[in-house]
Amino acid sequence: MSNAMESKYDTGAIMGGLYGDGIIACKGAFSPAWVAQLKEDIETLFAEARARPGGALERGPCRYYVEVHPERVRGFVELVTHPWVTAVCRAVLGADYKVVEAGFDIPFPGAMHQPWHRDFPAPDATLAGRRLNSLAFNITTVDVTEEIGPFEIAPGTQWDDLAGHDPMFPGKELYPRYEARAQRKLPNVGDISARSALTIHRGTANRSQLSRPVFVLGVDAPDARNAEKHDLQVTRRYWESLPEEVRAHLTCRVVDSLEDIYQAHTIEGLRMGITM
Question: pTM score, two decimals?
Answer without folding.
Answer: 0.94
